[in-house]
Amino acid sequence: MIKVLWINPVSDSGQNAGIARELAAIRQPGTEIHVCSLDLGDLVLSSIGRRAPQSAVWFPIVSSVYHAQAEGIDAIAIGCFYDTALDEAREVSGSAIVCAPCHSALEIATRLCHRVSIIIADGSYRVQMEETIRKYGLSHRIASFRAIDATVESLQQDGVATYERLRRVIGAAIVEDGAEGIVLGCTSAFGYAVRLREEFGIPVVDCQQAAFKCAEFMGRAREALHWLPSRKGSCQAPTKDFLEQSGLFGKPSPLAGRIVVPAV
Question: What is the pTM of this model?
């Protein structure tokens, strides 16, 4: 059995149950799922679309990963398409594997087609996402970004309206931008990929599913093939002495609203 943790990097735990259901539907036998949001004290965050609110969850994500690996979690997915704090989290993950939606979804999509369009909620998110994709060396595989002009919170509030917005911009991406595959570039855009794939006949990658399945696969590969994170060079973790002296992770884990789906 392996344990996979999904970190929903907001203080609002309202989507945790829905996320747990979605992930449980695609897991392999023997995978236990943990879905958590973050205890951010007095802060109330339902999304982190801007850089300022992202700054409030950066360290809590890293701290969550540190504490999760200490409790025996095998693999972790950070639930934001910005791949928030991914490198920092990996540095302190011990032997646990850490994945994130943008990297995972693009790895999958670029195995299925040459040119990918990314569908995002708000066009202003594009610049930061482009920076992340450039770092991954995948900019040349992006056909376009298309925004549906919606808030992150609304993506699960009105499924009919969200689907219509998605299908409209995906159609334009195929016809006008030459998209051969689609990545839904928000982890709150879950539950739409199957219908869209059937309608348009091209790969449509749900980035939530992509991050979870990558984490699950790597968690199993860790056990079967001993694929472990490097701790050499730039991948070195802070020393035990430093962590003890600094008290960096001295406070309890900020993981909150935990839902556990036992392995079957």
Answer: 0.96
